[in-house]
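Here is the promised in-class demo. Please do not try to memorize the tokens; focus on the logic of going from shape to residues.
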């Protein structure tokens, strides 16, 4: 979803590869399927020999779909006087817009007519209001010679949410996936060599998924909520939604929540209909002590695809007119009614990015919004009595333009609430930039809001490089450094120039020192000695998925044939395998000249790698070092095992990082350490 920053020397090769890839991808096998609109159907993964690349060709071609420009965040009908503007005018005449209430009335009328028609028809599957799904459903193939590492792996569609069952064992490991445009899918054995997937949401009025969560009050894991509409700031595909659906049987059937909007003394509804119709839903939080108590974070969503895309500054978005304001909404009756309790501290906000409850006190609710940092409502900590009394606890570092995004994850350590936090904006891809994204932590969120906010300034100085963790930080502490020699360098600029789109932080339940930071892809840091098309400094594997078991503080490690060093995060973007590949995408001469890679070390490795643009991640509760991760390329899993491949950090292979006489393993590459094995488990595009 972004333009990857290849060097000028590599642009010509990128263009040739893009053209070649398009031709090759178009020849991929396609499989049609037919299903009644409200039936569940199942597809199996393709044969193992059909390996695909997780890197979509749009990356190599330099697609700008998810780039942030001021034009993309402004409502409109495309270029003035253009065809889309004409169509919009004819559909809305004599008014200027079509409000959600009219859409709802049209839907009710359509359903009424369809029901009457179905009652008089002998074949209900072909009567009105029954859709037959014909696809597209095809194998997404990209040859390894076009990938960054050279390995041929799988890719699929953008996945925005993952839920894993409370137990996961071979033969019984349920995993649910929410996709940007394909609804919700489930496999009953995510550990199978070739998992079988079932599409669950043929009954949904819209298959754009922004949030998918399990009710913590149901120990079986069968109660889930899906929030339709994707609240990301992408210029296309982030469709506005139609509200929330609920299942109590693992997704076999779904019920639409009424979601009626109710006024309060602070916030008024634009209409009394569905609070989330025409909006995207970025998060749903459920009170673990009361299943009827829900919080929902909403944001703007694109109104269809009638706007023009891919035309630079003339691009514009159409947002749903007359829909209810974006913000945090609260329900105490299981979703029958909702009332707004926080507007993102800005009535013109693009919307809420994250919502979560304090694990020690579910009456304390945290929320973040674009350009607003993190706020909370806490009767116990801040003495608030009003349901709309939110106070700021973390200020945005790079406000302006509505693209500063803050994400957080709460856990418990030493009987106190610990919060991990990431913050980034539409920065450059330069980790030395003053607005490079970074990573924070507090080990005592029980302070008052004023005290937490005040601690942010003091904690902006990164701890000494000699720190060994985990430490204890009473207030906010920044744990990212722009200095490449620092062990805190690993998380700087992890989501590069599009943190508003692909940024998240995650800590598994019961593992408070384990944290994952996921973002985009640092193309310029990839090793140039692979057999693919990536050719960077070799400082890391791309830092798309980072993993720490020391809460983001350094730990002392000694690798094979090496001297002691420190490490904060392990870079999981590449795995430890060397996939057989006879080609070398750029050739030895290119790698030696532009890598620079020392002679004899060119074109060595072809490991499996993660697709750019990360959105969601969960761990196997039975094997917490095994992850399932969702990106713009589908879902991958690791095997949970690690191997010491620190010898790949040898600067003889990556001469641009240091002296060519360095001993293998001594390069201070703190983000490039033991690596897992990746397996693609979603191999088809829908």
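The designed amino acids, position by position:
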């Amino acid at each position: 979803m972004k333009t990857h920053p290849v060097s000028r020397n590599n642009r010509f090769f990128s263009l040739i590869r893009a053209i070649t890839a398009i031709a090759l991808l178009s020849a991929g096998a396609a499989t049609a399927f037919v299903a009644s609109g409200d039936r569940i159907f199942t597809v199996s993964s393709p044969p193992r020999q059909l390996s695909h690349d997780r890197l979509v060709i749009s990356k190599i071609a330099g697609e700008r779909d998810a780039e942030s420009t001021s034009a993309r965040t402004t409502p409109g009908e495309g270029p003035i006087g253009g065809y889309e503007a004409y169509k919009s005018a004819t559909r809305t005449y004599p008014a200027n817009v079509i409000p959600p209430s009219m859409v709802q009335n049209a839907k009710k009328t359509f359903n009424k007519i369809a029901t009457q028609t179905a009652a008089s028809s002998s074949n209900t599957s072909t009567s009105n209001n029954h859709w037959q799904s014909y696809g597209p459903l095809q194998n997404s193939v990209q040859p390894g010679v076009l990938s960054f590492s050279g390995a041929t792996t799988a890719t699929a569609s953008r996945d925005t949410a993952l839920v894993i069952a409370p137990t996961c064992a071979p033969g019984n490991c349920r995993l649910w996936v929410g996709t940007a445009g394909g609804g919700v899918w489930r496999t009953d054995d995510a550990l199978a060599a070739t998992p079988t997937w079932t599409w669950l949401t043929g009954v949904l009025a819209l298959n754009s998924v922004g949030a998918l969560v399990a009710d913590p009050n149901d120990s079986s894991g069968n109660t889930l909520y899906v929030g339709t509409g994707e609240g990301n700031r992408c210029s296309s595909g982030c469709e506005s939604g139609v509200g929330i659906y609920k299942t109590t049987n693992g997704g076999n059937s779904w019920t639409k929540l009424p979601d009626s909007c109710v006024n309060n003394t602070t916030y008024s509804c634009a209409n009394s209909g569905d609070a989330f119709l025409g909006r995207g839903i970025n998060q749903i939080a459920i009170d673990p002590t009361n299943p009827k108590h829900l919080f929902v974070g909403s944001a703007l969503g694109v109104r269809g695809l009638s706007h023009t895309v891919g035309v630079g500054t003339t691009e514009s978005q159409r947002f749903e007119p007359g829909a209810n304001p974006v913000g945090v909404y609260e329900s105490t009756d299981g979703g029958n009614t909702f009332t707004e309790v926080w507007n993102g501290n800005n009535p013109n906000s693009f919307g809420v990015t994250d919502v979560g409850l304090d694990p020690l006190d579910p009456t304390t609710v945290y929320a973040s919004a674009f350009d607003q940092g993190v706020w909370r409502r806490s009767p116990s900590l801040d003495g608030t009595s009003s349901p709309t009394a939110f106070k700021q606890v973390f200020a945005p570092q790079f406000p302006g333009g509505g693209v500063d995004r803050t994400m957080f994850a709460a856990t418990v350590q030493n009987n106190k609430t610990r919060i991990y936090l990431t913050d980034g904006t539409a920065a450059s891809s330069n980790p030395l930039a003053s607005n490079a994204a970074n990573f924070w932590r507090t080990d005592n969120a029980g302070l008052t809001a004023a005290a937490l906010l005040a601690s942010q300034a003091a904690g902006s100085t990164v701890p000494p490089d000699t720190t060994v963790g985990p430490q204890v930080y009473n207030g906010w502490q920044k744990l990212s450094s722009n200095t490449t020699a620092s062990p805190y360098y690993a998380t700087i600029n992890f989501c590069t120039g599009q943190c508003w789109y692909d940024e998240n932080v995650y800590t598994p339940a019961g593992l408070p020192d384990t944290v994952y930071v996921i973002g985009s892809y640092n193309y310029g840091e990839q090793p140039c000695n692979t057999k693919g098309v990536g050719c960077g400094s070799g400082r890391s594997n791309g830092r798309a998925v980072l993993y720490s078991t020391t809460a983001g503080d350094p730990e002392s490690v000694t690798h094979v044939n090496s001297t002691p060093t420190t490490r904060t995060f392990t870079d999981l973007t590449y795995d430890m395998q060397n996939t057989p590949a006879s080609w070398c995408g750029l050739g030895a001469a290119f790698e030696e000249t532009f890598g620079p890679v020392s002679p004899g070390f060119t074109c060595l490795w072809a490991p499996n790698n993660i697709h750019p643009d990360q959105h969601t991640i969960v761990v196997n509760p039975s094997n917490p070092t095994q992850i399932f991760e969702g990106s713009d390329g589908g879902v991958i899993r690791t095997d949970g095992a690690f191997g010491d491949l620190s010898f790949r950090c040898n600067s003889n292979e990556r001469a641009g990082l240091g002296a060519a006489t360095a001993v293998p393993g001594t390069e201070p590459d703190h983000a490039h350490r033991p690596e897992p094995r990746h397996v693609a488990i979603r191999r088809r595009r829908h």
